[in-house]
Amino acid sequence: MPSTFVQATNGNNGSGPGSSSVTTTAFGSSTTTGNAIIVSVYWDISLSSNLTSVSDNKSNIYTLIGTVFTDANNNACQHAYCLNATGGASHTVTANFSNANAAFVRIVAHEASGIATSAALDQDSGGNQQTSATPAASSVTTTTGGQYIFASVVNAGGTASDTFSAGSGFTEPANSTASAAANESMVEDQVQTSAGAIAPDWTRTSSGLCTMRVSTYKSAGVPPSIITNLMPQILM
């Protein structure tokens, strides 16, 4: 089955530290057991507050991807995911930090169906920064078709009220922006039909420092067809 966006949620702690964790609002509808939850987290790392884990209120286990990327203004970013998640009503996702000094925390979570239930992560861009009104994430090359492309960006400098719009071929689903128009972070997605290189991009209100990351997830594929009504062959 192809990978498909289901729904999104987000959360933030404004501009200041004061908590060692930040939790999203609940997904708008009950999440479905067996789906994947994919998460983007941005925060100000200048006060030495490190992302230690991502968790939720359904006792799911999340994997942090790669290493933390930190830009020139001390904005850090990391992605995380949970495959074959336990779902349910009032599902929230939490970013947990090493101390209460994490400021400008922005968390966005997507529920996606049709993602492989094991070994789904294919590519991680590792993060990059650009000062531009048309920023683009580092290109990655997927190895299979039908992958779920999860791409995040944050306003890391410049005009704080700037907003982002999705790039060509991408969609910004509802509830995929954290702290809208206030040093916002936004996630766009795409189901890539065929394997190959992809570099997600955005349009920003004005030029400023942007920090981006992209991770890609293999689909569960199509189950084998069951062949019926085979006629026996008679050998002559």
Question: What are the main properties of this structure?
Answer:
236 residues, globular
Task: Write up what this structure looks like.
This protein has 236 residues and is mainly beta. The chain has one domain (4-217). Helix content is 0%, strand content 44%. It contains no helices and 19 strands. It has strands spanning 4-12, 21-23, 36-44, 51-56, 63-64, 69-70, 75-82, 93-97, 103-113, 121-124, 128-132, 140-141, 147-155, 164-166, 177-178, 185-192, 197-198, 202-204, 208-217. Strands 1, 3, 5, 6, 7 and 9 form a six-stranded antiparallel sheet that branches. A hairpin with a 6-residue loop joins strand 15 and strand 16. It is globular, with a radius of gyration of 19 Å.
How are the secondary structure elements laid out?
Blueprint (H helix, E strand, L loop, with lengths): L3 E9 L8 E3 L12 E9 L6 E6 L6 E2 L4 E2 L4 E8 L10 E5 L5 E11 L7 E4 L3 E5 L7 E2 L5 E9 L8 E3 L10 E2 L6 E8 L4 E2 L3 E3 L3 E10 L19
Antiparallel strand pairs: 1-9, 2-8, 3-7, 3-9, 4-8, 5-7, 6-7, 10-19, 11-19, 12-17, 13-16, 13-19, 14-18, 15-16
